[in-house]
């Protein structure tokens, strides 16, 4: 088993801005070592006849055709607006000095 050192685990924890104890560093070193060992085992598989894939299921877009349609009449739409100015919706300022 390729065990990571506690120093390597502490370094990764520091990069991730995680505070870990000595006991946690020891435990994580063993667990991460087991994970890397499993990844090495995957390299032993024969994948010469396996097609590359990004997802296990075939994905198909379900988007509609992009067709331009006439929008709502501005005058009708502006009847529902609380405040307007020059044909535009007027909103209160959100940035204050």
By secondary-structure content and strand pairing, the structural class works out as: mainly alpha
Spell the H/E element sequence.
HHHEE
What is the distance, rounded to the nearest whole angstrom, between the alpha carbons of the first and last residues? Answer: 61 Å
Name the CATH class of the domain at 6-42.
Mainly Alpha
Protein name: Aspartyl/glutamyl-tRNA(Asn/Gln) amidotransferase subunit C
EC number: 6.3.5.-
InterPro entries: Asp/Glu-ADT_sf_sub_c (IPR036113), GatC (IPR003837)
Subunit structure: Heterotrimer of A, B and C subunits.
Overview features:
97 residues; elongated; single chain; mainly alpha; Histone, subunit A; two-stranded antiparallel sheet
Please give a structural write-up.
This protein is mainly alpha-helical. The protein has a domain at 6-42: Orthogonal Bundle (Histone, subunit A), CATH 1.10.20. The protein has three helices and two strands, in the order αααββ. Strand 1 (84-85) and strand 2 form a beta hairpin. The radius of gyration is 29 Å and the shape is elongated.
Write the layout of secondary structure elements.
Elements: H1 6-15, H2 22-42, H3 74-78, E1 84-85, E2 88-89
Antiparallel strand pairs: 1-2
Helix pairs in contact: 1-2
């Amino acid at each position: 088993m390729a065990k990571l050192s506690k120093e390597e685990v502490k370094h990764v924890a520091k990069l991730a801005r995680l505070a870990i104890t000595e006991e946690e560093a020891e435990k994580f070193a063993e667990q991460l070592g087991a994970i890397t060992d499993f990844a090495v085992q995957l390299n032993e598989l024969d994948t010469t006849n396996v097609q590359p894939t990004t997802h296990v299921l075939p994905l198909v877009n379900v988007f509609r055709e992009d067709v331009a349609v006439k929008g709502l009449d501005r005058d009708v739409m502006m009847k529902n607006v609380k405040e307007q100015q020059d044909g535009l919706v007027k909103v209160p300022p959100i940035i204050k000095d």
